Amino acid sequence: MERVSLKMIANELGVSIATVSLVLNGKNKNGRVSQGMSQKIIDKAAELNYVPNNFAKSLKMGRSKTIGLIVADISNVFFGSLALHIQICAEKAGYTVFIGNTNEKLIEMEKMIKLFKARQVDGLIITPTEGSEKLIKDLLKADIPFVLVDRSFPELDVDSVLINNYQISNVSTKHLLKKGCRNIAFVTYKQDQFHINERKRGYMEAMKEVGLFNPENVKEVRYGFLEKDIRKAISQIMKSEKKIDGIFFATNSISLAGVKSLFNYKIELQKDIQIMCFDESEAFYLLPFSVPFVKQPIEEMGKQAVRSLLSQVERHANEERHVILNAALINK
Amino acid sequence: MERVSLKMIANELGVSIATVSLVLNGKNKNGRVSQGMSQKIIDKAAELNYVPNNFAKSLKMGRSKTIGLIVADISNVFFGSLALHIQICAEKAGYTVFIGNTNEKLIEMEKMIKLFKARQVDGLIITPTEGSEKLIKDLLKADIPFVLVDRSFPELDVDSVLINNYQISNVSTKHLLKKGCRNIAFVTYKQDQFHINERKRGYMEAMKEVGLFNPENVKEVRYGFLEKDIRKAISQIMKSEKKIDGIFFATNSISLAGVKSLFNYKIELQKDIQIMCFDESEAFYLLPFSVPFVKQPIEEMGKQAVRSLLSQVERHANEERHVILNAALINK
DNA sequence: TTCCATATATTAAACGTTTAACCTATTATC
DNA sequence: GATAATAGGTTAAACGTTTAATATATGGAA
Predict the structure, then answer these.
(1) What is the phi/psi pair of residue B329, to 5°?
(2) Which residues of A touch B50 (CB under 8 A)?
(3) From the CA of B260, how many Å to the nearest CA of chain A?
């Protein structure tokens, strides 16, 4: 079954390729093609089940109607949800999504950017890995439309869709304080990414404000050694001189590993120790007590990312370039 | 910054486009281009940072080096993991992955197939939705390389990567029996998909074998009304005339909702009632007791799917066309 | 009649590749 | 010295579009 081209339609109707192209692209505005012929072409295209050749189109037009999505790990629910909404949203606008994983590795991120550039995507949506400023700067120089999501680099002037990390962490910490906690630990990744640092800052400021901040209470774990480091961190927390009565986990993976690790101790969670998690997990619903957590507006993030990107790609009036969405503290 | 083409390289070196093309594609086998010129071309390409135009290439060659992945919902961990490994594997082979979600809807699946066909992907990896035989048949007719994964249609002769649903369910049920259960319920989706039916069959055969099968103990819930229907099913189970002492949940979503729902009753799980789940969930690790579950070899599934697809696309000797991988019963 | 507008289509170049077929100069063979 | 083989390229068509520029026929106005 041979592929149907404009040429075939043109031949069957005895007109030129150009005429067919004009009609099928709705570009016969000023009555360039007669009503009758227009209809004939449309009908014939339907009859032959014409599907445009996107390669030829893209080659000619220089636009591919594709976007590349680069996330850390698509098997992570957060990124999976983000990808879901981005795909749905992009499709509505006529764009198709390529997907790539970095596993939080700079070199993989670089590879993916290169790959997608070679694929001539019209734009990129990226959750940048730690230390990828240079890559992002290169992207800026290369004048490729892109938008960062979930994370960004404050010193770079790039389009981004983020949440109010500082504020929500601050509020969440205060929530623990309000519940009566006086000695709250903060468990985070050993890294240097703005969004994570902001979460820490939110916690620290809240603690300082009431004169209860203790640097000892900030525990850092390594991404590649999560389980092991968490065990150690929790152990330290449990042995703490001054009894810890609250723990704030800075990310979803840390939250899960942390809670899991806490089960090894005979304490009553949400009684002896209050916990606060970042991101939702279906796991929380299986626990015999309720876990307060920070819920990110993932669907909205995806939508805004696509919107922001397409406004660059299609040269709209450049909407808001730095979108900050509000996360919610869920406590039921 | 203008895009670098073969033409530019050719002009700079005063040779023809063809020569440059041959060299950069490693097709100057029989010494068609001299060593010296070859090197010059390679160097110049590097210097100008040449990136081939994939559209032109695909247009000419009729192959795009892309594959389309169609899953139900990329935010579901199972599909996310599958996608992760498929992407990694495909990339290694020089293919890039498009992603699409069906949300288990036939019409969305159709849309995605159409979309990816228009994108001229070289092949498709699909987890087909219920009732999509016709779409799959059309795909066969259209002679498009594809492979079904996770699910298939036994009456259609299509390439597929599945797990041993019947056998693992049979074994898992027997495991419950061995633990002393005598009246085991099976909770599944109200649908008609082969892989799910096979799970049911595995359970039924095991029960029949020991003369303990009771049709009343099979409960069906609707995909779109999971929470509600599960509550009802669990309620029925708890009210069962003859006390239920084991429950086998047929999918990961059902497992989670089921366990969650069970918490509303004052029974001791894994004591009063033994449970068995399909698919792993991080949530299980948060429970104070261990949950036995069926673990699917997702990475292997992804790898095999890509391998199988590419053997079609690249016309290798057609390896195994019906791959059945073994799931494992995890019980720690 | 001559000129102009209008309606309706066509022509042809261009996008950047790939590749079969062809060309030319040099060297080897008889 | 004639012929053939080889090395080292080049030419040109083709893939399927888009679109600016051009063509042609018809009818109306002057």
Answers:
(1) -90, 115
(2) none
(3) 5
- Which amino acid, residue A314? E
Provide DSSP, B21-84: HHHHTT--TTS-S-HHHHHHHHHHHHHHT----HHHHHHHHS--SEEEEEES-TTSHHHHHHHH
Cβ contacts of A239-242, under 8 Å, gap ≥ 24? A240/A183, A240/A185, A240/A216, A242/A183, A242/A214
- From A152, A229, A156, select the one nearest A190 (Cα to Cα): A229
Task: For residue range A14-72, list pLDDT tens digits in order.
Answer: 999 999 999 999 887 767 789 899 999 999 999 999 999 999 999 999 999 999 999 99
The Cα–Cα gap between B236 and B251 comes to 19
Alpha helices in A75-179 (DSSP H): 77-92, 106-118, 133-141, 165-178
Backbone angles phi, psi at A5, to 5 degrees: -115, 170
Question: What's residue B61's pLDDT?
Answer: 95
Predicted pLDDT of residue B288: 80
Q: At what angle do helices B298-313 and B77-92 cross, to 10 degrees?
A: 40
Q: How far is CA A288 from the centre of its chain?
A: 31
d(CA A284, CA A286): 5
Rounded distance in angstroms from the CA atom of residue B41 to the C1' atom of nucleotide C30: 39
| DSSP letter, residue A101 | E
pLDDT tens for B227-268 read 999 999 999 999 999 999 999 999 999 999 999 999 899 999
**Strand C positions with any atom < 7 Å from protein CB?**
7-12, 14-21
Amino acid at site B82: L
CA of A66 and C1' of C21: distance in angstroms? 38
Helix (DSSP H) and strand (DSSP E) numbers for chain A: 12, 12
Cα torsion through A283, A285, A286, A291, rounded to 10: 90
| Alpha-carbon gap: A84 to the closest alpha carbon of chain B (Å) | 6
According to DSSP, residue A183 is labeled S
pLDDT band at residue A332, thresholds of 50, 70 and 90?
confident
Report the percentage of chain A scoring pLDDT > 70.
98
CA distance B294 to A220: 34
Under DSSP, is residue A204 helix (H, G, I), strand (E, B) or coil? helix
Q: Which domains does chain A have, with CATH numbers?
A: 6-52 (1.10.260), 61-158+298-324 (3.40.50.2300), 165-295 (3.40.50.2300)
Query: Is residue A167 helix, strand or coil?
Result: helix
Cα gap A76→A298, rounded to integer Å: 13
DSSP string, B172-193: HHHHHHHTT--SEEEEEESS--
Cα(B176)–Cα(B275) distance, rounded to whole angstroms? 8
CA A75/CA B250 separation, integer angstroms: 21
Check if the beta carbon of residue A301 is closer than 8 Å to that of residue A149: yes
Of A79, A119, A263, the CB nearest to B96: A119
Residue of A nearest to B94 (CA): A115
Structure tokens at A55: 């390669």
Asked if A54 and B115 come within 8 Å (Cβ–Cβ), the reply is: no
Residues forming beta bridges with residue A162, ordered by sequence position: A324
**Nucleotide showing the shortest C1' distance to residue B19 CA:** D9
Collapse the DSSP code of A325 into the 3-class scheme (helix H, G, I; strand E, B; otherwise coil) and give the result: strand
Contact status, residue A175 vs residue A294, Cβ threshold 8 Å: no
Query: Does residue B30 contact residue A33 with C-beta atoms inside 8 Å?
Result: no
